[in-house]
Design a protein that fits this description.
The chain is α+β, with helices and mostly antiparallel strands and 148 residues long. Helices cover 29% and strands 31% of the residues. The protein has 3 helices and 7 strands, in the order βαββαββαββ. It has a 5-stranded mixed beta sheet, covered by helices on one side. Helix 1 packs parallel to helix 2. Bound molecules: adenosine-5'-triphosphate and magnesium ion. The site of magnesium ion (MG) has 4 residues, from helix 2. This is histidine kinase.
Amino acid sequence: KKVFMATFVKDLLDNVKAGIENDVTIKSEVVNLPKTVTTDPDLLYQILENLLSNAVKYSKDGKEVDFKLSMENNRLVATVSDKGIGIPKAEQGKLFDRFFRGGNVGIVEGTGLGLSIVKKCIEVLEGEISFESEAGKGTTFQVSVPVS
Ligand code: ATP
Ligand code: MG
């Protein structure tokens, strides 16, 4: 499907921002995006919505989440970076498992399904996902998806 990037990004950010329940702000940056790309917008939306809402809900009040979307070599590249609770090294291998929830999430609610859905969507789109995280410091996810 042909996806209008400006509309897609605006809808995504509006929806995520409307769901924020703490005092965290999202700073977004788009770099050399084409007007339209051809991909599955629903899968792309699932991926980015889950990563952004995780970054927000696992951050403490007053912090900022950075979102960057760019086009590099016919791939959409998204980076979602937070200064939140982080993911302990011992848990990083289980992150994409269904129903996995970290031991440090406290009262933050969730089902533990978000990232398993993200992984499935990435597979269908033949994209890639990686992350770096340090407990107590924050987390950065990067995804890239080939588009035409
Ligand atoms: P759901 O997304 O289904 O509402 P969830 O957020 O707990 O629930 P996932 O999105 O799959 O589930 O994330 C799994 C676990 O990974 C989380 O419970 C949390 O421990 C950890 N996690 C995910 N993203 C982050 C992040 N940005 N910072 C810190 N921990 C994270
Ligand atoms: Mg989640």
